[in-house]
Amino acid sequence: MSLQRIVRVSLEHATSAVCVAGVETLVDIYGSVPEGTEMFEVYGTPSVDIYISPSVERGRERADTRRWHFDTGLEIIVVMNSPSNDLNDSHVQISYHSSREPLPLAYAVLYLTCVDIALDCDLNCEGRQNRSFVDKRDWVWGPGGYGAILLVNCDRDDLNCNDQDNRDRHVHCLQDLEDMSVMVLRTQGPAALFDDHKLILHTSSYDAKWARVFHACGPEDSCKSYRHVLGQDKVSYEVPRFHGDEERFFVEGLSFPDASFTGLVSFHVTLLDDSNEDFSESPVFTDTVVFRVAPWIMTPSTLPPLEVYVCRVRNNTCFVDAVAELATKAGCKLTICPQNENRNDRWIQDEMELGYVQAPHKTFPVVFDSPRNGELQDFPYKRILGPDFGYVTREPQDSSVSGLDSFGNLEVSPPVVANGKEYPLGRILIGGNLPGSSGRRVTQVVRDFLYAQRVQSPVELFVDWLAVGHVDEFLSFVPAPDGKGFRMLLASPSACFKLFQEKQKWGHGGALLFKGVVGDKPVNTVSIRQVLSNVNLISYNKFVQSCIDWNREVLKRELGLTERDIIDIPQLFKTERRKAVAFFPDLVNMLVLGKHLGIPKPFGPIINGHCCLEEKVRSLLEPLGLHCTFIDDFTPYHMLHGEVHCGTNVRRQPFSFKWWNMVP
C-alpha cells in the first residue's frame, strides 16, 4: 500500500480532500492545535478506516479504540476502500481535549471524497498464488514473476501500406490492434469531482522514444477513431471526461531492446487538483505500469520446421528440386525466391535469420535482415514482411560490415544447462576472432542487438581461420531421442584421416574423390592414397583441427556438453589465401527438417559401390532416427564456398517455453 499525500486540517473551517481507494492519506493535526491540548480523539464515518501510528517500532492501531495522548510523533492514517457516491460524503472528525476541561476544546472536520483510479494491463501473473502482492511498477523475471509485455509492432497488416505498422502514427486496419497491448484506465467516483480535477496520462521523454499509445476517441470498430496520444514527441495526454468506468488504450513497441534501451517502458496516470484558482495544479495521486518489450528470439535447427526458403538461380534447378522434395517429406511449406528478385544471389541463409516475438496475447515470426546487403537485400523487406510477419534490421553507420556479418555466422543452440545455469531457449552462437587478436568480428550494432535481447546469451566462437568465416562451416545441431535431446555435429579432419587410413589399410587407397561430379568446369579426381601422402594438406588440417578443438572446448563449457553430446563428422579443409575452405562439400553444413537431413553430397571415395563418406555419416546419424538425403550442391554452391545450409533458410515453430519464465 503506497502513501498518497499529507492533508492538513484546520480549526477555522472544514477541510475537504480527495482520497484514492486503497491508498493511505496522512492527516496532519498539528498545524492549528488549541492551547492546552493534552489528548485527542478521532472518529470517522463507516466508510473510513482510521489508524494511529505511535512509532515505527509499535506499528499502527485503530484510532477509534481510545483517547490518544497528544504527541508530535503520532501519525494519523486514513484509508477509504470504496469510491464515493457524492462529493464530500464521508468525513473524519478530530476532537481536542484537556484534563482540566470536561468538554472538547475544539473540533476539526475533514470531508472526504473517495475516487478509485487504476492504470491496469495484463501483468501476466498466471501461476501466481496471490495477485494482490504484484507491484505494477516492477517487472520480475521467472516462473513466479510478473509484468506487462509489449510487442514491437514491426509487421505490416495492411498490404496497401508501404511501411511497417510502427513507422507511422496511424492505425490503418483493425488487425493492427491485435499486435498491441491493452492498457486500461479505470475510474470510479462522483462525476462532479472532475469539474476541478483532471487525469493526465504521461511518460518520460526517454520512454516516449520506445513506445506509442493510441486512444479510441470514437467507435472502436473504426480505424479513424484511434488517435496517437503518447510516444515520440508526445509525453502527456489529458484524458477526456468519459461516461463509463474505463478507457482502453492500445500500446505498440517501436524498438527492440538494444545497447541504449533496456526494454522497459513506464506509463503513468496522475490525478491533478485544479480546484484552487490561486495556485497551480497539484498532484493528488499517480499510478504506474511498466511494460517490457518482448525480445527477438531465434529458433534452433532442432525445432520443427514450418517453411523452407531457397533461391532459384541460373544453375541450381536440380538443387531446388531436391530441397523441394525434402520439404515435402518433412511436411513443410516451400517458398522459392525467383531469379529476377535474387539477381543470382543464392545465399539466402546469409541474408536473413528467422525468429519470432511473443506476448501472452500474440506470437508472430520476425525476420532479422543482415547488414550484408547483397543482391538479396530487398527480399526480406519486400517479400517476407507482411501481415503477422515482422521485420528488423541493424545497419552500421560506417563501412564496418565484413563477411562475418552474414547470418550463416549466426546460429543458436538447443536448450542447455551450463555451469549451473539454465538456458531454456538455447544460446546464440556467433563467430569472431580469438580474444585479444586483431581480426574480423561481427559488427558492433549486430552484437549489441543480440546481447540486448538477454534470453539467449551469446557465445562467441573463433572463425577467423575460415575464408568465409561462418560458424555453420564447422558445426550444426540435429535432434536426438535421448540424452539432451540433440547432438552437436562438428567437422573433424582427424575423423576423416582416420576413415581414409582405415580404407587404405583395407586396400582401397586408389578409391577416388570427386568422381561423378558434373559441372561447367572439370574437377580433378584425387585418390585416398594421394590425400594421405599430401604433407601440406595433412599439416594444414592439423591446424584446422586445433581451431575446431579450441571451439569444441568453448562449446562444451558454455553449453554444458560432454563428449557423448558431440558427433565428429569427417571433413577436410584446404587453404586459400591463408584461410580455410572445405576440401570436399562440407557435410555439417546441412539442412535440418525434423528427422529429415539434407546433407551436401561429398563425392567421396566409392568403395564397393558406395561413397564411404556417406556411409560413415549414415552410420553416425541414422541410429538417432534421422534420415539422410545427400544433395548435390557441388557446382552451384560448393564451388562458390557454400553448401546446402548456406543456400536455404527455415522458419520454425516457436519454443513451447515462454521467455518471461526464464531468469537471464
UniProtKB/TrEMBL annotation:
<feature type="domain" description="Protein-arginine deiminase (PAD) central">
    <location>
        <begin position="115"/>
        <end position="273"/>
    </location>
</feature>
<comment type="similarity">
    <text>Belongs to the protein arginine deiminase family.</text>
</comment>
<keyword id="KW-0378">Hydrolase</keyword>
<keyword id="KW-0963">Cytoplasm</keyword>
<dbReference type="InterPro" id="IPR038685">
    <property type="entry name" value="PAD_N_sf"/>
</dbReference>
<comment type="function">
    <text>Catalyzes the deimination of arginine residues of proteins.</text>
</comment>
<dbReference type="Pfam" id="PF03068">
    <property type="entry name" value="PAD"/>
</dbReference>
<dbReference type="Pfam" id="PF08526">
    <property type="entry name" value="PAD_N"/>
</dbReference>
<dbReference type="GO" id="GO:0004668">
    <property type="term" value="F:protein-arginine deiminase activity"/>
</dbReference>
<dbReference type="InterPro" id="IPR013530">
    <property type="entry name" value="PAD_C"/>
</dbReference>
<feature type="domain" description="Protein-arginine deiminase C-terminal">
    <location>
        <begin position="284"/>
        <end position="661"/>
    </location>
</feature>
<dbReference type="GO" id="GO:0005509">
    <property type="term" value="F:calcium ion binding"/>
</dbReference>
<protein>
    <recommendedName>
        <fullName>Protein-arginine deiminase</fullName>
        <ecNumber>3.5.3.15</ecNumber>
    </recommendedName>
</protein>
<keyword id="KW-0106">Calcium</keyword>
<feature type="active site">
    <location>
        <position position="472"/>
    </location>
</feature>
<dbReference type="InterPro" id="IPR013732">
    <property type="entry name" value="PAD_N"/>
</dbReference>
<dbReference type="Pfam" id="PF08527">
    <property type="entry name" value="PAD_M"/>
</dbReference>
<dbReference type="GO" id="GO:0005634">
    <property type="term" value="C:nucleus"/>
</dbReference>
<feature type="active site">
    <location>
        <position position="350"/>
    </location>
</feature>
<dbReference type="GO" id="GO:0005737">
    <property type="term" value="C:cytoplasm"/>
</dbReference>
<dbReference type="InterPro" id="IPR004303">
    <property type="entry name" value="PAD"/>
</dbReference>
<dbReference type="InterPro" id="IPR013733">
    <property type="entry name" value="Prot_Arg_deaminase_cen_dom"/>
</dbReference>
<dbReference type="InterPro" id="IPR008972">
    <property type="entry name" value="Cupredoxin"/>
</dbReference>
<feature type="domain" description="Protein-arginine deiminase (PAD) N-terminal">
    <location>
        <begin position="1"/>
        <end position="113"/>
    </location>
</feature>
<feature type="active site">
    <location>
        <position position="470"/>
    </location>
</feature>
<feature type="active site">
    <location>
        <position position="646"/>
    </location>
</feature>
<dbReference type="InterPro" id="IPR036556">
    <property type="entry name" value="PAD_central_sf"/>
</dbReference>
